Amino acid sequence: MDVWNQLLQGFATAGTPINLLWALLGCTIGTAIGVLPGIGPATAVAMLLPITLQVEPTGSMIFFAGIYYGAMYGGSTTSILLNTPGEAASMVTAMEGNKMAKNGRAGAALATAAIGSFVAGTIATVVVTIAAPVVAKYAVLLGPPEYFMLMVLAFATVTSVLGKSTLRGFTSLFIGLALGLIGIDQITGQARYTLGVPELMDGMEVVLIAVGLFAVAEALHVVLFEGRVVETQNKLTKVHMTKLEWKRSIPAWLRATFIGIPFGTIPAGGSEIPTFLSYATEKKFSKHKEEFGTTGAIEGVAGPEAANNAAITATLIPLLTLGIPTSNTAAILLGAFQNYGIQPGPQLLDTNATLVWALIASLYIGNVMLLVLNLPMVGLWVKLLKVPKAQLYAGILIFATVGVYGMRQSAFDLFLLYGVGLLGLVLRRFDFPAAPVVIGMILGPLAEAQLRNALSIGEGKWSILWERPMSATLLACIVAVLVLPRLVKMIRR
Amino acid sequence: MQRSQTLVAVGTLAVAGLLAAGARDISSEAGYAGIGPNFVPWVVAAALAVCGLWLLWEALTGGFRNMEDDGPAPEVEGDGKPCWIGFAAVSAGILLNAALITTLGFILSCALCFVLATRGYRASQGHPDLRPATLVRDLLVGLVIAAPVYWLFTKLLAINLPGLTASGWI
Which of A401, A426, A451 lies nearest to residue B97, judging by beta carbons? Predict the structure, then answer.
C-alpha cells in the first residue's frame, strides 16, 4: 500500500525532535487559546502568521494544525465550566455540559469531551489519510470552469447556511470580495483600488483582516457592551467516567464522527451544522431523554464534541486537495500556504508530498498529545479562566500588534487594523456573519482568476460554465443550496 | 436600533458607490476571456448595491429580519448603556500604539496601549481605578507581556519589530 508507506515517511518527518516540538507548542498554545475566551483558532493562527517569514513550511504547518484543533479541545473546557459559551461550535456542548457541571459532574463532561475528541479526531485523520490521495486523483481532472463553480459553491454554502439571514450573509461575502479586490490584478497586473498607497499594492494582508475582524472587534465589543456581564464558574470535579458513562458515550462518539466527517469535507461552513445535527440525533436515540436540558445528558456532550473534531479534521481534505477552505481557520491556513508560495490543490500531494504527509502524521501525534494535555492537566488550564477581563483583552491587543506589525513592518497596517476592527464591531453588532468576509477575501481573487481562465478556454463564451458535465452538476448544487432551504420552509408553512 | 440599521444600510450603499466609482478607472482590456480586470469590481459593486437597498428596505420596514437579539441584547444587562468612555480609552490605546510604535519601540508602545486599554475595561466594569498603584501595576504587567514577546520574535524568530534603542533588548 503506497499510502501507508508515504504516511510512514510522514511520521519520520513529523517525528524529528524539532517538528515534535512545533506540534507540542501548537497543541499547548491551541489549548490555551481554546480555554481563554476572546480569541479563537482563526485569530490565533492569524496572529502567528509572521512566523512563516522565518520558519520552514513543514514546521509551521504542523504548528498551525496543532493550534487549530488544540483550540477545539480547549474550547470544550470553557463551555463546560463557564456559563458563557465561546464560539458557535461549542455552544451545543455548553447546553448539556453546563447542566452536567452544575450537577457536580463537570469531570465526566470534560472526560467525555476530551476522549470523544480524540476518538473522532483519530478516525477522521484515518479518513483524511485514505481519502486525500483519491480526491486529489480526481481533482486533477477538474478544469478552471469546475474550480470556479466549486468556489462559488463554497461562497453559497458559507453565506446561506451560516447565520440567520442570507441577505446579511451575502452582504458580508461581497464586502470580503471587495477587500480581496484591493491590490494587483493577478492576470493583467493592473492595480485596483490602491488609491496610490504603496501598502495597498500588495493587497490586504490576511492577518490584518482576521485579527481585525475577530480580535480587535471582539475587544471593542467587550468594552462597549459586555463590561458588566458577570461570569460564573462551575466547580471542577475529578475527571473520570463511570462504566455506565463509557457505555453511553462510545456510541455517541462514533455516530457523531460519521456525521462530522462529511460536513467537514463539503463547503458548508465548518462545524456548526454537524454539532447541532449530532445533538439532535443523540437526543432522539437516547434512553435518558429526561436528562436532556435538565440534569445534563452525557450523550449531549459526547456527540457534539466528537462531531466538532471530526468536521475540523475533515476540512483538511478540501483544503489540501482542492485548495478550498471550508472554515475560517482553514481559510487562514490557506493564507499561510500562500505565504510560502505554495498553492494547495491536486498537485500538492506530488509537489509537496513531504509536507502533506508530515502534516497528516502530525495530526495523529497531535491527537495523542492533546489527550494527555487535556485529561490529566485540565486543572492547570482551568486556572486560565481566572485571568481578569481587563488584562486579558488588553493583552490580546498586544498580540494583535505583534501579528500585524510583524507581517509587513508597517505602522500603516496598525491604523488599518483599527479600521477593520470597527468594521468587525458593526458586523457583530448587527448580526452579520464574519466568516464570509474572510473566505470571500481569500477565495475571491482565486475564483476570479479561475473564472477568467475558464472564459478564456471558452473563448469568451459563458456557456462553458454549464456545457461541461461536472461544472453543470456543480451549478445544480449551487442552485440547490440556495433554493432548497427556502423551498422546505415554504412547504412547511 | 432601527435608525442605526438604516445607517448600516446606507453605509453598504456608500461602499457600493465607492467601488463603482473606482471600477470606472480600471481598464476593461479583456483578452481572450471577454471580461477584463474591471468585470468583478462591477459585479461586486452591483451586488453590494442590491444588498444595501434590500437592507434599507428591511431597516425601514420593521428592522433587520431574524436578528439574534430582538429587543435589548442579552449581553447589555446591567444599565444597558454602551460604555463610550471605555471604548474611547481602548481606541486611544490602539491608535497611539500605531502612531508611536516606530518612535517608542514595540515594548514601551505596547505597554502604553496595555495601560490605556485596561483603563477602558475597568471603566466598562464600573470602576475606572485611576490610583497610581494600579496604574503602575498595569504598566508592569504590560511590560512583562510585551518584553518577552518582543525578545521571542526578534531574537528567536528573527522577525523585525521596532525597538527604542539599537541594542535589540528594548
Answer: A401
Which residues, 6 or more positions from A466, have their beta carbon under 8 angstroms from its beta carbon? A472, A475
Q: Angle CA(A66)–CA(A71)–CA(A72) in degrees, nearest 5? A: 105
Q: Over range A218-243, report the average pLDDT.
A: 82
Reading the block at residue A311, the C-alpha cell is: 468536521
Each residue of B96-109: pLDDT tens digit?
A: 999 999 989 999 99
For residues B65 and A432, give the distance between their C-alpha atoms in angstroms, rounded to a whole number. Answer: 11
Residues 6+ apart with CB under 8 A from A482: A156, A160
CA–CA dist A368, A457 (Å, integer): 48
Q: What is the pLDDT of residues A154-196, one digit of tens each?
A: 888 878 766 678 889 899 999 999 999 998 888 888 888 888 8
Closest C-alpha among A349, A331, A345, A354 to residue A139? A345
Residue pLDDT, tens place only, A379-407: 888 888 888 888 899 999 998 998 899 88
Q: Are B90 and B121 in contact (CB under 8 A)?
A: yes
Query: Which spans in B24-131 are helix H?
Result: 39-60, 84-104, 106-124
Position A224 pLDDT exceeds 50: yes
Decide if pLDDT at A85 tops 80.
no
The H or E element spanning position A191 is strand A191-192
Q: In this structure, what C-alpha cell is assigned to residue A346?
A: 491536486
**Contacting residues of A for B3, CB less than 8 Å apart:** none
Question: Is A408 in CB contact (< 8 Å) with chain B?
Answer: no
Q: Would an 8 Å CB–CB cutoff place B107 in contact with chain A?
A: no
- What is the C-alpha to C-alpha distance for residues A290 and B165, in angstroms, rounded to an integer? 66
pLDDT value of residue B75:
43
| Residue B127 near chain A (CB below 8 Å) | no
The residues facing A183 across adjacent strands are A192
Rg (chain B; Cα; Å): 24
First to last CA, chain B: 47
Give me the total of CB pairs closer than 8 Å, taking one residue from chain A and one from chain B: 221
